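I would love for you to help me understand the pair of lines that follows before we discuss the fold together.
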Amino acid sequence: MPIRRLPPEAVNRIAAGEVIERPAAAVKELVENALDAGAKRVAIRIERGGLGLISVEDDGGGIPRDELPLAVERHATSKLTASAGGDVDLLNIHTMGFRGEALPSIGAVARLAITSKARGVNDTWAIEVEGGQLHPVKPAAWAALTESGTRVEVRDLFFATPARLKFMKSERAEMMAISDVVKRLAMARPDVAFSLEHDARTSLRLAAESDPENEGRRARLSAILGADFAPNCILLDQTRDTVRLSGFAGLPTFHRGTREHQHLFVNGRPVKDKLIVGAVRAAYQDLLARDRHPVAALFIDLPPDEVDVNVHPAKTEVRFRDAALVRGLIVGGLSHALASAGHRASTTTAQSALDAVRAFEAPQPFLRPAGHAWQMAEERVAAGDFMAPSGRVEAADHRLPAGIEAQDLEEIAGRMPAVQVSDEDARFFPLGAARAQIHETYIVAQTEDGIVIVDQHAAHERLVYERMKQMLANGGVRRQGLLIPEVVELDPSEAEAIVARAEELVQLGLVVEAFGPGAILVRETPALLGHVDAAGMLKDLADDIAELGEAHALKERLEEVCSSMACRGSVRAGRRLTGDEMNSLLRQMEATPFSGQCNHGRPTYVELKLADIEKLFGRR
């Protein structure tokens, strides 16, 4: 079959299939154009899930009359500049879009109309493209526009390619995808006002924030991610070399069931990058259960020539020049921020407890039971023979359950000095003063403005775990030598990657060396792991190094063993504690990072404010 050129219409529709795969992709491209034009207000109007109408209106710089035909011509753009020699630098990109494919791609498969008024010009002009057919520029009226701006209307999307319509989802699903795109772009630009309307109903309205860096960004994120995000997030602002990490990360106890609530931005561009996702997982690895995921909005800013945004037609993926630097900054920045949060836990745990209390039906009138015991109780109350609780717990048997090492409160207190304060002054500490122990499992403490209920086993488990991690970090992981070193066959590239990190693996208790092409000799393994499947472990390590650039699997296994040992060696539910022991536990929690959640990601305590308790009893 001879080689021939495709007609321009076919070329445009093929390109449209890459860039405009669904209505949400068209919205993304149009809103990015508005932001690149300097817009401070973007209004999006949708009908029939974007298949009937997509209208994006902005107050940006506008498009001059003579440039309107160029705007709908393929590979014509104002966002790339050429050098004196005619070369275009595709690695020095400062805008959201730059390919010059969005408008012609949309015009090839839909009815496209662009109405624009350029800054400093009195007249408004419009141009239309219908299924790839260009109409001449003509005057237009836009009464509501005062200075400059652009309105792009896309009607009957994919009417020129009806086969594509068969692959569209329901109008509701397409609208949800559009809403998600708009929200991500709005998170990246809190200085811009956004509105989203679907079938004459406003689903999103966000005012521009005056402080787009800190509180303004927090307010924008809360408006999108929910009101619970603001009180349960931690501010991030770390810089390493030329890379800056900022944004907000949720507390470990503020988590979700999927990664959909992790929002990542590179130079203001929403992206989905495996390296960044893996770094977030590594930072939270021993703070959350395996099936839970943190909520975060992370912003990475770096010089444009340090990142390639031109690796995907939709520009949703990026490639970093120094991926290890970026990953290390994310893991280190998140870990530092989470450690600085100390014992802090999310407010949603307390709200869940209050909602559960409110969910109970009003108590029915109490019926007096018959019997001698009830009569004796009545007589004792009438005679005043009733002791009020003193707030102290009597000394009890301090023996730990059989088979558990003596890693109790006293041992940890010797390594983590507890603050010695009076029982009355302890109320003014974050976790307050211990007042009682309920069911030999929960410690009730009084704070300055409420009460705290602590799960003694979960809290002590975290304390023991953090101490064990500190011991491992200070003294390294103890190793056990293999009587007969094991040879593991791998792909040559995988074996080379593991050998290159041999020194790092020694710190984790694994001693390996090269043993010919594609072979690794394992001489020692971590003593904590006992019997080890060396071949399986090395394959997992090779996968982690290839994907994340770090021996993540071995660290996870070591931390899993430490977590299991901490669980077995901590104070069990059912053990009665003295008042001093309870207060010691509270003080150590305040001084220990990550003590707001146990090793499985569950909260270690719930705080109830006095105002909320008063509402339960109708006092407010």
